[in-house]
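Tokens as discussed.
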């Protein structure tokens, strides 16, 4: 099973695995993607659940609390896809990585692997690039240093623009 978090992560997960779980803070985005299972992360925002996190990882991180227990149990040994530059994928995945970084020793068969989509800087906004730098130098770095993750794969979003 693959798990897709946020818009880009959900789309990648759906392309690669019909038996997937997708997670988003936007009801609209959840409806756009085919999935075996869908999970709405609750976002407490004046804009509600329709608009999503809009490139704001803090909103995604806040929404993580609503799915924390369920998600942390589901990711064990799985492959998680998320975008590093946006709000939902970056925010929720940051919290997952932070939790993995502080766990004692995670058994190898339970280590979560990550496929992370990085922005294509010449075409995407500086905000996506800044979010990505913060994500890679913070939560990803801490999780890798802990030894509690499986492989982490980085994919460029360049093909979207070609």
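Sequence:
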């Amino acid at each position: 099973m693959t798990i897709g978090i946020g818009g880009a992560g959900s789309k990648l997960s759906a392309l690669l695995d019909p038996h997937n779980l997708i997670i988003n803070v936007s009801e609209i985005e959840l409806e756009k993607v085919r999935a075996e299972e869908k999970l709405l992360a609750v976002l407490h925002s004046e804009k509600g659940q329709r608009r999503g996190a809009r490139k704001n990882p803090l909103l995604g991180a806040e929404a993580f609390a609503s799915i924390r227990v369920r998600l942390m149990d589901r990711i064990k040994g799985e492959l998680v896809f998320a975008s590093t530059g946006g709000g939902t994928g970056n925010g929720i995945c940051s919290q997952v990585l932070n939790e993995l970084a502080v766990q004692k020793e995670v058994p190898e068969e339970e280590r979560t692997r990550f496929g992370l989509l990085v922005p294509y800087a010449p075409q995407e906004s500086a905000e996506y690039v800044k979010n990505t730098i913060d994500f890679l130098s913070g939560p990803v770095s801490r999780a890798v240093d802990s030894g509690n993750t499986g492989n982490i794969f980085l994919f460029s979003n360049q093909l979207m623009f070609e």
